[in-house]
């Protein structure tokens, strides 16, 4: 089930994100933020008016997504960046696609015109293929802009009109 996230979901969201921070390259953060910080981030997204969604399966949060401003300068006010995270062990079940579809649908109801995906690691084929399947096109790669787990990491930029 895909639904709007509530503040009660922050613990599950923080668990999912912590795994990606500690084990993956989807996030360039290196220390998982505490639940209080994750709650503040959720509230910031809500203030913007964009969706913050969770995927729930058997009463457990198994994924989440949200859209935030791509950049904070006013000329970018109609462009959003998406974030999608799936709980370890739940990839390949269509959760990412369901979350991203719902996210884009919610964003289309607002004044936003473009969505950007900034994908950590050019080897993150699952995220690149998910975004490609959802109509995003690759628009560039910033090479070796992050350093995590003892190696240099790219950022892949993908874009689509809402």
Give an overview in words.
The chain has 162 residues and is α+β, with helices and mostly antiparallel strands. It has four helices and seven strands, in the order E-H-H-E-E-E-H-E-H-E-E. A seven-stranded mixed β-sheet has the order 1-2-3-4-5-7-6, with helices on both faces. The chain is globular. The chain starts with a strand and ends with a strand.
List keywords for this structure.
162 residues, alpha+beta, 7-stranded mixed beta sheet, 31% helix
Please sum up the structure shown.
With 162 residues, the protein is α+β, with helices and mostly antiparallel strands. It has helices spanning 10-23, 35-48, 95-108, 125-133; strands at residues 2-4, 52-57, 60-69, 79-86, 114-120, 137-148, 151-161. The longest helix has 14 residues, at 10-23.
């Amino acid at each position: 089930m895909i639904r709007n996230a509530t503040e009660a979901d922050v613990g599950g969201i923080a668990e999912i994100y912590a795994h990606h921070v500690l084990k993956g390259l989807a996030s360039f953060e290196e220390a998982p933020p505490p639940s209080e910080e994750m709650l503040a981030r959720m509230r910031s997204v809500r203030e913007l008016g964009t969706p913050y969604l969770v995927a729930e399966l058997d009463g457990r949060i198994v994924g989440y997504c949200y859209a935030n401003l791509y950049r904070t300068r006013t000329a970018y006010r109609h462009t959003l960046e998406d974030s999608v995270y799936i709980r370890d062990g739940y990839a390949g079940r269509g959760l990412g696609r369901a979350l991203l579809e719902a996210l884009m649908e919610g964003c289309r109801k607002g004044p936003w015109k473009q969505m950007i995906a900034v994908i950590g690691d050019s080897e993150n084929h699952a995220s690149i293929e998910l975004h490609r399947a959802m109509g995003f096109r690759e628009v560039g790669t910033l090479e070796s802009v992050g350093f995590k787990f003892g190696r240099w990491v790219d950022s892949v930029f993908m874009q689509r009109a809402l």
